[in-house]
Amino acid sequence: MSTANVNGITVGYDDEGTGEVLVLVHGHPFDRTMWRPQVEHFSAKGWRVIAADLRGYGETTVVPGITPLDVFAADVAALLDHLGVERFVLGGLSMGGQIVMQCVQAFPERLKGVILADTFAQAETEEGRLDRNAMADRLLREGMSGYATEVKWKMVARHNPEAAEFVAGLMHAAPPQGAAAALRGRAERPDHTETLATITVPTLVIVGSEDEFTPVKDAEYMSERVPGSTLVVVDGAAHMPNLERPEVFNRAVEELLAQT
Per the record's keyword annotation, is Hydrolase included, yes or no (predicted)? Predict the structure, then answer.
């Protein structure tokens, strides 16, 4: 594990392999270890793979309050500046995918390819804003355990208990203040529908067939709006296809990387 001091925080990250750069952004409420199957696979395939803990998660500084998506995106850019990386393929899952779309808006010239996994582009609804802020209050009041137990079998399909236990461990370990700050930030997220149409680099939209959080229709919505994008539905996976069916997920990413 390495650390870097950027934007007033200390970021924990993995930087493995050599070659062209693939950057992976984790979802909520996880940390960079959710990408371990991809870091190992692609670093062995001739890619330099960078996966960092977002602020408020894992081994990165917890900043209470509210963390908007543009702050996460600025942290991604600052870490890559620190590492001397100018251009890269950028992928993210769930909240990580929304951060990727924020990065597309903020610095499109740096991107060589885009991966949008189990995410969606629309702005939050009024009901969603209330729900996310209420959940943030709950996490601060109760901690992560109740939430983690409730959503485990939405994160991962029931026929994959090994992946479910790993994902549950990540959720139980997440810092409540960091998770709450991210929830409050996502409650105010912008609509990135128009951002999708501006993407000019090879793009993979990938989703689990059983995902309840971001169903296949959300992936279809995004893919239809990104010119020339590829849509892959991972059969038998829920919200974490990179962990549930890593061989299928990695094959789809390999095909994307071959286009960049």
Answer: yes
